[in-house]
Amino acid sequence: MISFGFWNIFIVIVVALVLKNNWRLDDGKAVWKNSLFLKSSVIQRLMQFLRQPIVNFLIQASVVLVVTRFLCYTGWLVYLLNQPDPPLWDFKWFYVASKLAHQHLSPFNVEIFNQSFCTLTKVCGFIPPFVYPPNIIPLIWFLGYFSINTAFTIWIAMHILAIGLALWGANILLESKSPAFRTICTISVALIYGLVYDLQVGNIAIFVVVLILWMFILARKHQDIPAGICLGIAVCKPTLAVLFILYFLLKRRFSLVFVCVVTGTSLIFLGLALTGNSLTQFLPDVSRGFSLWLNDPSNSPYLSISRLDLMVVGPRLFPNNPLLAKLFSDFIVLILVGLVGLYWYLQQSLTAWSKKIYLSEMVLVSCLSIAINYSQQTSSVMLIPAVVFLLNDLLHQIRHCTFSRKRMSVWLAGVCSLAVQTAVIHGWVIGSLAKRWNVKAGELPYIMKVTIFALPSYAILALTVSIVVLAISSLRQKQVINLVAL
Asked: How high is the pLDDT of residue 2?
């Protein structure tokens, strides 16, 4: 797939030099020298092991090769997507929907969409229907002005820009200003499987995540109007964004919610008008389409191996008992929501029910968005704030706390859960194993379905619980630090 010739060697050298020049602590040097956390005997032994020449070389070589692989893969992907027949599977849905809207036809009608999909993309047969809400139509309207090849080139450019904005937003949320931690943050975010996979299929998850990231950045600065506009646009993929509306209602940021609702409602009615629809026409079409879409093998909770949400855990464990499967999934979700609610209550109690928003809260809402609602591989980009949270938490421990085995075990559990959402596990291991069976025909062995192929869902659960535990323990640490300061 990628030829490691002269140009790849050149890229490896450039990456190595860039990483070397940016591997500096700068303003964090004094903190590291005086840190009680780093003076722990466990950390000292670990640092001595890492300083061994062969270990140090292997770590540096691994980091350089990972970054190089990512750059080479991205370059190869951009080249591949510029071929005459682009493999942008998800993009084709948006393109066909835009073309139908330009003809004042409804993409939500199953028959109309299926026929047009066959005509425009030359892919015929049963096609899962278009089930996005009408507020997405104004946002993808521009695609209909171009041929499919020109449109997907623009779409790729938009994705690359969105990836850049996501990396920039993550670095803004990072508490350390040192080049070393910023480099670690950038690499860690880039390794999330959904980041590249979203580009590979042409989904809109990365656009929604960028809007949510910058909505959060703006909301922290009390710029509620632009933040509300960002959230109102992000609701075009409601499974990823709608929980943030409830969150801001609980935080009593009513102006932000009002702007969000006005923006989203305006886009909905504009989308209905552009497709020649009314609510009475739209609702029956989307209800019928949604039932067909949910039963498609790639979406069905009983057959899909690409879904991340916890609503598939029950159907995987109890495939022959639908009632027990649903109750089990609902029970897990209820416990998870209860834990997040407990943290939110404790946080608000300590801050006198302040309207201020915190990164830990945003991370938990992001995790819940892909844990309790339908979510596919592209949705793992919602874990970008989780990467920043874990790095910020490590920085807080180094600066202010002593080493704790229990707490670091929880932190490592969160890191390992994130590692499952990288291309190594989610892409290569699960993807290569899936090719051994006809998954869509239900031929996947039960033991594989509830173990290896369920790892991404289990990882979302473990990550959310880890972050809740770290966030609650951080509240106690801050109380102790404040008392000592007094």
From this structure: 44
